[in-house]
Design goal:
Elements: H1 5-16, E1 46-53, E2 65-76, E3 88-97, E4 110-116, E5 127-133, E6 136-140, E7 161-165, E8 168-178, H2 185-195, E9 218-227, H3 228-232, E10 239-249, E11 255-261, H4 267-270, H5 274-282, H6 294-308, H7 318-325, E12 330-333, H8 360-369
Antiparallel strand pairs: 1-2, 2-9, 3-4, 3-10, 4-5, 5-6, 7-8, 8-9, 10-11, 10-12
Helix pairs in contact: 1-8, 6-7
Length: about 400
């Protein structure tokens, strides 16, 4: 489907907000760091979700295999081992979608749940994978070879775990990797300030001066290679909605959802009231359109209207766009090539998943101003500019670059 310029501007206006909130005087926040408080260490702070057909990353991959990547622990410094929380549950939620044009239900048909043991003397954590499907939970702690499912310690060979579940083999990686995200955040603040009349009008820095705020940082990565047939579980679904969550102990012997992330920049970008943000993180996507969540949606629409003023226009139906992005899930149509903003459905919702090198920032900037635009930061960086540039992606699963 060819996406019209007006639709692209509108639906992608959301993503420009993922690093900035435009209401003067508000605290800015992003998916990469919404703060660290007593009950929220970085190890239980979600950053990015990636969902793609593996063949788009590796042409020799098996047909039908998908890769899910959940990154957490933002701004991890180089050469330091960070561990996954031993008191939290890290989860991928998947909905089988019958019609690519249907409104997301926010119903989890399948959950992939990861729990971690304390690290051993070598820095390795044992992993328990629980698959929940149809109300039935299956927990697996060993690989096809009978060894423990294990994380990859820092400065060690990559540990890839082949895990048998319900007649399929899943491949699991858990460990520190370089953060693949890239963006000149500080200059965007200046450009935004000038556009709103609260500062001097400036342009983005040229490529030889632009700064990448994620350069040199790592994240905790959970990556899973999943055969499509495993997700179909006997039906013919080829489209799936995916979102990630982290749950922590609730003090009553159970767990409470604490973090939620689907598309980049929905919750922490569009919701500025702390209580609303906390509420959004604590509810499942199926409640995003409920009457109880109406105040949260109204605030999201108000933020969208503010974002649209960046290019001096005000002709986006913010309510329609909010409906296109709520419930907040990452939809992937596995019958087409993966790629962020590669296509939309009839509701204007993105349906191509997200690849590791998708330039969310440049796509968004170009859509907003109606012509090619860039913060002049790329994943590979610019020769002669030490302030940007990431390590090359690995050629095989889990693909993210080795940690700094």
């Amino acid at each position: 489907m060819k996406i019209s310029q007006k639709i692209r501007r509108a639906i992608l206006a959301i993503e420009v907000a993922f690093i900035v909130l435009l209401t003067p005087g508000m605290i800015t926040a992003s998916d990469h760091d919404d703060g660290e408080v007593d009950i929220k260490g970085r190890t239980i702070n979600l950053t990015d979700l990636y969902v793609f057909r593996e063949r788009e990353q590796n042409s020799s991959a098996a047909d039908g295999d998908l890769v899910f990547i959940m990154n957490s622990n933002p701004r991890s410094v180089a050469r330091y081992q960070y561990y996954f929380s031993t008191t939290a549950l890290y989860q991928f939620h998947i909905t089988q979608v019958a019609d690519v044009n249907s409104t997301p239900t926010g119903r989890a048909d399948i959950i992939l749940r990861f729990a971690f043991s304390p690290p051993n003397s070598k820095g390795m954590q044992a992993v328990a994978l629980t698959v929940i499907r149809g109300g039935s939970a299956t927990t697996t702690k060993t690989t096809v070879n009978g060894g423990l499912i294990a994380s990859t310690p820092l400065n060690s060979n990559t540990v890839l775990n082949t895990v048998p579940v319900n007649g399929s083999n899943l491949t699991v990686f858990a460990g520190l990797r370089e953060d693949p995200f890239f963006f000149d955040v500080e200059q965007f603040f200046r450009v935004r300030s000038g556009a709103l009349g609260t500062g001097s009008r400036v342009a983005f820095k040229p490529a030889n001066q632009a700064l990448d705020f994620a350069k040199g940082y790592n994240v905790n990565t959970i990556a899973v290679r999943v055969p499509r047939a495993f997700l179909q579980a006997g039906n013919r679904a080829t489209t799936f909605d995916v979102w990630s969550t982290i749950s922590i102990r609730d003090g009553a012997g159970g767990f409470k959802q604490f973090e939620r992330l689907g598309r980049p920049g929905i919750n922490e970008a569009l919701i500025v009231t702390p209580d609303f943000l906390e509420a959004f993180n604590n509810i499942p996507p199926r409640l995003d359109l409920s009457p109880a969540a109406a105040p949260v949606r109204q605030e999201a629409v108000a933020t969208l209207n503010a974002v649209d003023l960046l290019d001096g226009s005000d002709n986006v139906d913010a309510n329609a766009i909010a409906r296109a992005f709520l419930p907040d899930v990452m939809r992937i149509d596995t019958t087409r090539a993966s790629g962020y903003a590669s296509a939309t459905n009839s509701q204007g919702s993105l349906i191509g998943g997200r690849l590791l090198l998708d330039d969310v920032v440049d796509i968004t900037l170009g859509a907003l101003v109606g012509s090619p635009a860039s913060d002049n930061v790329s994943y590979n960086g610019t020769p002669g500019n030490p302030a940007q540039g990431h390590k090359p992606l690995e050629s095989s699963f889990p693909y993210l670059a080795l940690p700094n």
